[in-house]
Design brief:
five-stranded antiparallel beta sheet, eight-stranded parallel β-barrel, 27% helix, globular, 477 residues
């Protein structure tokens, strides 16, 4: 059977049999069935925003100031239905523990990645009870709760004496003001990473610089390891956490992660910022999943213009399917996140943006979108991409919001129709035309193009459907 398509943008096609949705069980073991909405807590929603039905669009947030803007866990609770109605059934929030206070030359710790005390929550976001209430509110909606955790480093505002391998303190040169690691012996000796191809240096030297050093936690020290393992167990238990997003994974040894993830006892997905599938594959052996950075590095240029290399994208997907411990199934597939310029900032063509945004939902992995994608935000490199979502008024009728709603629905329909959908590797079919991809993951056929606003043609000759079988065009723009 031959199928020829002339579409402006993209299309998802399912058999008519698949139109009946089934409910999915919610457990820490079924993350692959979920789709994740990523939140930067300080920028998602304000608490007690009584004006204008809790939206408060006039409250300013200057991303260039790199300071707290007032988002909170209570604000997130107030807008969970906005997320759920878009079809997302899991939420990942930024790190929850206390960061260094005050302004540094690089701004404040509003993002959560500058921990100073891992035994207390960040009061800018709310109280421990607020965090527990967020967890409860998610679970009441049959949504899973993921928090971001940082164990690679701790920060202090004390000046660093690199020569003396100590922070400058009034009383004791070996002391720090971070909790629970009060002594310099709890950290690797100060040295800043210069060669990112030297894995020993990557794991044992420090991020940051002399102005704002990231004290590198000695995760080979068994006392430190025991403290961190006990701590993560308490975090998971105290806040009823279903999953952990592990920050700065490649800066810590795989052996540490193997023990840490086992002790955590919940689903773990790690950030390994690399374009190399061979390098990334090692980490798939010591945690449940990884963010799919190698594919992301190919995805962005592939859809950035009609000259994008779609073959490079298919190659890296095939590599991940072959090299990762669970293939590409246990990866987090994304287009935007808090660390990278939004795709819409890089690409003004709406058709290219629409095609690229489909990718996480038809990939083998777990779809993740970053707060603000559904409102068409277009911030550049950090901190410009840390916009306040309340300024967009949580519009549930925006084109992007409705598109993600349809994509989530299509994926759930496919899961309900085919029990093997989540464990069937995506297959790239010959389209016999330029600037096009045809992806088969039964019962779903996806047709994508990087032709932009010009029309595209697909000529898919594979026999995918039975004669006279009805097919349904789920999403077509």
């Amino acid at each position: 059977m031959s199928m020829s398509w002339r579409l402006f943008s993209y299309s998802l096609i399912l058999t008519a049999l698949s139109l009946c949705l089934m409910s999915l069980a919610a457990s820490a073991d079924d993350w692959r069935t979920r789709s994740i909405y990523q939140i930067v807590t300080d920028r998602f929603a304000l608490a007690n925003a009584d004006k204008d039905n809790g939206i408060a669009p006039t409250v300013p947030c200057d991303t260039a100031a790199r300071d707290y803007c007032g988002g909170s866990w209570r604000g997130v609770i107030d807008h969970l239905d906005y997320i759920k109605q878009m079809g997302f059934d899991a939420v990942w929030i930024s790190p929850v523990h206390s960061n260094i206070e005050g302004m540094t030359p690089y701004g404040a710790g509003y993002h959560g990645y500058w921990p100073q005390n891992i035994y207390s929550v960040n009061q800018h976001f709310g109280s421990a009870d607020d965090l527990k209430n967020l967890s409860s509110a998610l679970h009441e909606r049959d949504m899973l709760f993921m928090i971001d955790v940082v164990v690679n480093h701790m920060l202090t505002t004390l000046p660093l004496n690199v020569t003396a391998s100590s922070f400058v303190t009034p009383q004791n040169g070996s002391a720090t003001d971070v909790t629970p690691f009060a002594n310099m012996a709890d950290f690797h000796p100060p040295c800043f990473i210069a060669d990112y191809n030297n894995q020993t240096e990557v794991e044992q030297c420090w991020l940051g610089d002399a102005t704002l050093p990231y004290a590198d936690v000695d995760t080979e020290n068994m006392s430190v390891v025991g403290t961190l393992n006990s701590w993560v167990q308490d975090v998971v238990s105290n806040f009823s956490v279903d999953g952990l997003r592990l920050s700065t994974v490649k800066f810590v040894s795989p052996q540490f992660w193997q023990d840490f993830t086992r002790e955590a006892g919940v689903f773990t997905i790690g950030e390994v910022m690399s374009n190399n599938t061979n390098y990334t594959s090692d980490y798939t052996q010591v945690m449940n999943a990884v963010l799919d950075y190698p594919t992301w590095y190919a995805l962005v240029p592939a859809f950035q213009s009609p000259e994008g290399n779609l073959s490079a994208l298919t190659t890296v997907v095939t590599q991940s399917q072959q090299l990762y411990a669970s293939g590409a199934f246990m990866t987090g597939s994304f287009l935007d996140n808090h660390d990278q310029a939004r795709f819409k900032h890089l690409v003004p063509d709406a058709a290219l943006v629409a095609n690229a945004a489909v990718w996480p939902f038809i990939h083998d992995g777990i779809p993740i979108i970053y707060n603000g994608q559904e409102q068409g935000l277009s911030g550049g490199y950090p901190p410009a991409n840390h916009e306040a979502i309340w300024t967009a008024r949580y519009n549930n009728e925006s084109a992007e919001y409705l598109a993600f709603k349809n994509l989530n629905r299509a994926r759930k329909i496919a899961m309900a129709a085919n029990a093997y959908f989540l464990i069937t590797p995506m297959e790239f079919l010959e389209t016999n035309t330029n600037n096009t991809l045809a992806i088969w993951k039964p019962p779903m056929l996806t047709l994508l193009t990087n032709a932009g606003s010009t029309s595209a043609h697909w000529n898919v000759t594979h026999k995918l459907f039975k004669p006279h079988q009805h097919i349904v065009d789920c999403v077509d723009v």
